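Encode chain A's predicted structure.
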Amino acid sequence: MEAIILAGGQATRLGEAARGHPKALVPIAGHPLAEYQVSQLVRAGVDRVIVSCAAGQAALFEAKLSGLGAEIVAVAEPEPLGRGGGLRFGAERREESGPLFAFNGDELHDVDLAAFLEAHERHGGAATIVVAPLQSQFGVVEFADGDRISGFLEAPRLPHWVNAGVYVLDDEALERLPERGDHEQTTFPELAREGKLFGFRHEGLWITVNTPKDLQRAEEYYAAHPELRPTLARNRTRSVPSAQRTGGGGPGEPGGSPSSKQGS
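Encoded structure for chain A:
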């Protein structure tokens, strides 16, 4: 099985915490973020991972993600294409038909990918997306009668679900991706109107690494769970010049939900 990782984000919101790395290669507990994703995909039976990245960074991603048990095929966008365009661009390098996994390159999670794929195949839709419960970033005020406050709730769970940036895409969904722009504003709404888009509810780990605070949370989690860190199949000896590490290309892709936005 194949997968695509959207890795065009340039980590601008992470600032100095990114240490000059592209967003998907920001170190977390001693490993690049995308190593966790590739290792997770390999455990789910994926043997070929296509990485859609910014111009000038293909060799960097192939060097950093080698030795994890899957063939890494990094494809550099000639210019920023948006997240939907990046997916379509990466999908052109597929060697198989049928469903594939697709990850935003800044997501860390413990989704059961086998159960996720099984749910997609059971529904028979064009695409299935992982959705996570929405947690308020603020404490909320509770009212009793009139304007009398009865209490407070600290960062409660809200009655909504949000896109977690993890997908199974079948051939129809891939064919309908935009050449430029955001699939969440084009392809997904169209599929939803046609009854061909499904959700897979996930209430476990989900961290979108957008800010230094997100990065700290990820560091603390994986430091406390060393069994979840990637295990290399071999010691990497390839080195990449530091000038290449920052890479070329444009900024990250615009659009998307606040929880799964890749581009900053």
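Residues 52 and 90 are 5 Å apart (CA to CA).
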